[in-house]
């Protein structure tokens, strides 16, 4: 029995040892598995680290390449921009120079046109008719209560006949106060304004050119005796003769107007004085 107990104990001991050995084996296997897994992980991490290093290197290289490419591109674009700017400046200079040339040409053209117009006007002026008064006179000094014939000498000093020529004349008297107060000038200007607007071709005549300053035409305006009083005879009143000529020359209408006055004891009867107003021509 004791032997059986011992054998049983031995069997149990062997079983425990076997179990212990089996457990140790399992633990050792687990440790090895863990160690292998750790080694595998470490190796994997090493590989990942290597990949990361490679990726980092590649990234750095790409970034560097991008920076270099960007720098080269900027330099190229900068040079192109400078060339374009230089070309634009040259173009602007050319445009500015051409603009100045065009402006100068336009000014020259305007000047040439003005010169041509001036030459044409000068030529027409040298060829056209010029009808105007030469002198106003009376045959004798005024006598109270007697009509006074006033003679106006006129002529054409131009180079062509003045066709369709018409004229009108006004004669009146005025005191020195009326003359100094502007009443005389007002009447003269009003009459001449109406006169130069006059145009009656059906009642017109031709005034032919005359040589030099000689007058080969005359007209007479008689001042009614009602105007001739003692003030006119004594010189307290003046006699005014105003009028105009309207004629056609060089296919254009031209006008000239005039004013003379007589003051007893100061004005020669054969050469009346010229008024300060009422004399002009176009």
Give your account of this protein's structure.
The chain is an alpha+beta fold and 282 residues long. It folds into two domains: 1-127; 129-281, Immunoglobulin-like. It is built from four helices and nine strands; from the N terminus they run H-E-E-E-H-H-E-E-H-E-E-E-E. The strands form two sheets. Strands 3, 4, 6, 7, 8 and 9 form a six-stranded antiparallel beta sheet that branches. The chain has a three-stranded antiparallel beta sheet with strand order 1-2-5, with no helix packed on it. A hairpin with a 2-residue loop joins strand 6 and strand 7 (252-263). The protein is rod-shaped and about 175 Å long. 19% of the residues are buried.
SSE layout and pairings?
Layout: H1 2-127, E1 131-137, E2 148-156, E3 162-175, H2 176-180, H3 183-196, E4 205-207, E5 217-223, H4 230-234, E6 237-249, E7 252-263, E8 273-274, E9 280-281
Antiparallel strand pairs: 1-2, 2-5, 3-4, 3-6, 6-7, 7-8, 7-9
CATH topology heading of the largest domain? Immunoglobulin-like
Biggest beta-sheet profile? 6 strands, antiparallel
> Helical proportion?
40-55%
- Number of spatially distinct domains: 2
Query: What share of the residues does DSSP label as strand, in percent?
Result: 15-25%
Average pLDDT level: 80
Q: Terminal Cα separation, in Å? A: 175 Å
**Secondary-structure element sequence?**
HEEEHHEEHEEEE
Broad CATH class of the largest domain: Mainly Beta
* Number of separate strands: 9
The helix tally amounts to: 4
**Poorly predicted spans:** 1-9
Which term fits the overall shape?
A: rod-shaped
What is the rounded Rg? 64 Å
CATH architecture descriptor name of the largest domain: Sandwich
User: Which structural category fits the helices and strands?
Assistant: alpha+beta
């Amino acid at each position: 029995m004791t032997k059986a107990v011992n054998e049983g104990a031995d069997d149990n001991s062997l079983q425990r040892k076997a179990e212990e050995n089996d457990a140790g084996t399992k633990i050792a296997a687990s440790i090895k598995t863990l160690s292998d897994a750790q080694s595998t992980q470490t190796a994997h991490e090493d590989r990942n680290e290597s990949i990361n290093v490679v990726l980092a290197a590649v990234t750095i290289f790409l970034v560097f390449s991008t920076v270099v490419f960007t720098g080269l591109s900027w330099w190229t674009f900068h040079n192109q921009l400078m060339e374009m700017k230089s070309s634009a400046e040259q173009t602007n200079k050319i445009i500015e120079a051409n603009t100045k040339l065009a402006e100068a040409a336009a000014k020259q053209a305007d000047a040439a046109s003005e010169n041509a117009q001036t030459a044409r006007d000068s030529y027409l002026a040298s060829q056209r008719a010029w009808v105007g008064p030469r002198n106003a006179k009376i045959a004798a000094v005024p006598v109270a209560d007697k009509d006074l014939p006033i003679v106006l000498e006129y002529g054409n000093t131009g180079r062509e006949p003045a066709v369709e020529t018409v004229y009108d004349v006004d004669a009146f008297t005025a005191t020195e106060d009326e003359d100094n107060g502007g009443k005389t000038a007002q009447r003269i200007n009003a009459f001449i304004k109406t006169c130069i607007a006059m145009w009656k071709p059906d009642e017109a005549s031709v005034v032919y050119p005359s040589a030099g300053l000689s007058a080969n035409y005359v007209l007479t305006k008689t001042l009614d005796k009602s105007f001739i009083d003692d003030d006119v005879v004594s010189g307290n009143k003046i006699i005014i003769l105003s009028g105009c000529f309207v004629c056609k020359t060089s296919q254009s209408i031209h006008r000239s107007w005039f004013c003379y006055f007589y003051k007893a004891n100061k004005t020669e009867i054969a050469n009346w004085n010229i008024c300060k107003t009422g004399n002009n021509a176009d």
